[in-house]
Amino acid sequence: MIHRLHLWAASIVIAAALVSPAHAAWRLATTDAPVTVVRGANVTSAAAGETLRDGDLLESGEGVAHLQDEHGTLAALGPQTRAMLTADAHVALLSGWLKIAAACATAPCPQVRAETESGALDVGSNAAAIVAAPANTQTVSVFSETGAQTFAAQPPVSIASGRFASIDSRGHVQLSARPTDAFLTNMPLAFRDALQPLALAFAKPARVAPPSRAVTYDDIAPWLDSKLPARKTFPARFRSRLADRAFRHDVQAHLNTLPDWRALLYPPERHGVPDVRNVRNVRYP
């Protein structure tokens, strides 16, 4: 009887996990072109109106993509931008341009955060910020468009409305009264306009594009050797791809920058556990 109760309880938990959203209902509100999505260990694409999930690695094309979650958090990805959706109202920016606004419509409101390789930026209540992380550079730039933002340094640094911050790879912040000319020149034109919420029907399930192919090493290489906190989750997430000879070869070739994969490629011996591959060679009296 107890055994049956345990099975019944387990089935309820599994069923709830299957029907509950994996993320706080992020939706790709509008986009100039389909967005490439690494979901789980597969590569697919998303069009306007589709649901996005916790852990999705997004890569925009030539245009701008606008995201919105059920709390009212707004975000826009500039062209050629790599970003990841993590916990509620958190977006990790690997490279490119991100505009993010904490426009909470339903309480309780989560802390809106933009994570970068230089550190995390907490967006203030009803505030908006523009974050630039150019590829192959060590500096992240932040413009506080409205409200005050807080950069998680020691001690934390407040970036007041209208102020500009340049953050190096060690998390050191340099504040300025206005954005640099280079920042303004390279900023996507669409980022000059305030982010506006759209009337999205979150209660209705959106069409989800099926996975198109298994992820390759080149698809995720910039993520694997990044300094983002999410990097720690990637070995477990993409472990199954080590069965692919090409993927495994590429990981082995880059172990100097991927030390967290070494244990998966070369697991330590377990003392006292016989090697099952040699069991057939054991002779019994």
- Radius of gyration (CA) equals 22 Å
Find the CATH topology of the largest domain: Jelly Rolls
Specify the biggest β-sheet: 18 strands, mixed
Cα shape? globular
- Note the run of SSEs as H and E: HEEEEEEEEEEEEEEEEEHEHHHH
How many DSSP-defined strands?
Answer: 18
How would you summarize the topology of this molecule?
Elements: H1 2-19, E1 26-31, E2 35-39, E3 42-46, E4 51-52, E5 57-59, E6 65-68, E7 74-77, E8 82-85, E9 90-101, E10 113-116, E11 119-123, E12 128-133, E13 140-146, E14 149-151, E15 157-159, E16 164-167, E17 173-176, H2 181-186, E18 213-214, H3 217-224, H4 234-237, H5 245-253, H6 262-265
Parallel strand pairs: 9-10
Antiparallel strand pairs: 1-4, 1-6, 2-3, 2-5, 3-18, 5-8, 6-7, 7-9, 8-9, 9-12, 10-11, 11-14, 12-13, 13-16, 14-15, 16-17
